[in-house]
Specification:
The chain has a 7-stranded mixed β-sheet with strand order 3-4-5-6-7-8-9, with helices on both faces. A 5-stranded mixed β-sheet has the order 11-10-12-14-13, sandwiched between helices. Helix 1 runs antiparallel to helix 2 and helix 6 runs parallel beside helix 7. Strand 10, helix 5 and strand 11 form a beta-alpha-beta unit. Helix content is about 35%, strand content about 25%. The chain has about 280 residues and is of the alpha+beta class. The chain is globular, with a radius of gyration of 18 Å.
């Protein structure tokens, strides 16, 4: 794209989807093989060669097609590249969301690719190669799984809701105590609570109506960039866990099938402070 040239979102979508499929092949091939594992911030924050290789492949392919676009990637950030979200077209990439699942061959693992323009998501792609599920969304065009339109559930009552959450990557006792307190509160007021180990997959489950809501603190923008648009285009709600507008760089998410349900959950959970992306 050259300066002032209109952005071809259809081309962006096709390039993003194509590279997600190619990345999925790499992930699936490595899924049951022995992995070389490294530790990042803590003993439960893992990275594998596959994470790194997939991110390089995805960024390289997209750059070939859109050399002026910007990128935020989980592994390049871990290597010291500074995050900066501007109004320019920015691809936000998690090469393997659910790396611990990937290491243990737990099937909820995926590649997540989001494109933001003017800091707003316009394309969301989440591909789970083990389950062969491709979730896609373009702004204003709906959300799909394997090309079939998906919608959030009709749930508006927390007592009837199945809620997803996760434990994050911190073993700090204070943070862990708040996480479990929040889980107890939500569980006591809901039909059930589940954890699948992947933010992107959790948001896809909300978008497809398999779960009614999902909340978590400690996430990064690459965990949710694609899922935000999927939930929105499926008819759902995204917000800050305390009920305010969602800031994708603020390290927390609450997404639900309805505003009513989101308000009920936000009243239950205690905030956890993390440094912004």
């Amino acid at each position: 794209m050259i300066a002032n040239e209109p952005l071809d979102l259809d081309k962006c979508f096709e390039v993003g989807k194509s590279v997600a499929i190619e990345a999925g092949k790499v992930i699936k091939e490595a899924f049951k093989k022995e992995k070389r594992i490294e530790v990042k911030g803590s003993a439960i924050d893992l990275v594998t060669e596959t994470d790194q290789n997939v991110e390089k492949m995805v960024i390289s392919t997209i750059k070939e097609n859109f050399p002026t676009h910007c990128f935020i990637g989980e592994e390049s950030t871990a290597a010291g590249v500074k995050n900066e979200l501007t109004d320019d077209p920015t691809w936000i990439i998690d090469p393997i969301d659910g790396t611990t699942n990937f290491v243990h061959t737990f099937p909820y693992t995926c590649i997540s690719i989001g494109l933001l323009v003017n800091k707003k998501p316009v394309i969301g792609l989440v591909y789970s190669p083990v389950q062969n599920e491709m979730y896609t969304a373009q702004a204003g065009k709906g959300a799909f799984c394997n090309d079939e339109r998906i919608y959030v559930s009709s749930c508006k009552d927390l007592q009837l809701a199945l809620i997803l959450t996760d434990h994050g990557y911190s073993n700090d006792p204070t943070i862990v105590d708040i996480e479990y307190k929040n889980m107890r509160l939500v569980k006591s007021h809901s039909r059930g609570i589940r954890s699948v180990g992947s933010a992107a997959m959790s948001m896809c489950l909300v978008a497809s109506g398999a779960a009614d809501g999902y909340y978590e603190y400690g996430l990064h923008c690459w965990d949710i960039a694609a899922g935000v648009l999927l939930v929105e285009e499926a008819g759902g709600i995204n917000m800050d866990p305390l009920g305010g507008p969602l800031d994708i760089m603020s390290r927390g998410i609450l997404c639900t099938s309805s505003k009513e349900l989101a308000e009920q959950i936000s009243k239950d959970i205690q905030p956890i402070e993390f440094e912004r992306d």
